[in-house]
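Chain A, query sequence.
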Amino acid sequence: MKTLSIDVRRAEPQDARAISETHRVSWLQAYGGLIPHKPLIQMVDRRGETWWRKATRGPATLLVLDVAGTVAGYATLGLNRARALPQEGEVYELYLRPEYQGIGLGRLLFGEARRLLKSLGCQGMIVWCLEDSEHAERFFRSAGGRDIAEGMENFGDKELKKLGFIWP
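Chain A, predicted structure.
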């Protein structure tokens, strides 16, 4: 019998290539048809291996979901960027490769991100997602988030509404 290892850990510079590929496939799957093609490709292409290598040393914390040595997902987190809201922590990004979705690994990664923010002393947390991203909205609602804020994101010549979900 073989044991499968699943671990959430801080990203290291040598994870950059795998995070870049995870970012690419997860964003294309999540936002294809929502964000216009050209701005989506530009956003994905900006975040290549070099960008992610720098991100492992940056001000935001970068976690990876490691499944048997494969980077199956990642999360970035830090202080809340929306100063008008009282929540101190924010999960900036939470993405899994499509083949790892729907089996509870997103909940595992999200739970670790929340625990880390709490351990850093953050009171409350916010996560933003596009309103039209039904999968993300359903995920954050099922994780106990309450949507209390709205905003707009500009993607080329298209504006999309985003929702802010909070946890106390």
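The CA atoms of residues 2 and 68 lie 11 Å apart. The mean pLDDT is 96.
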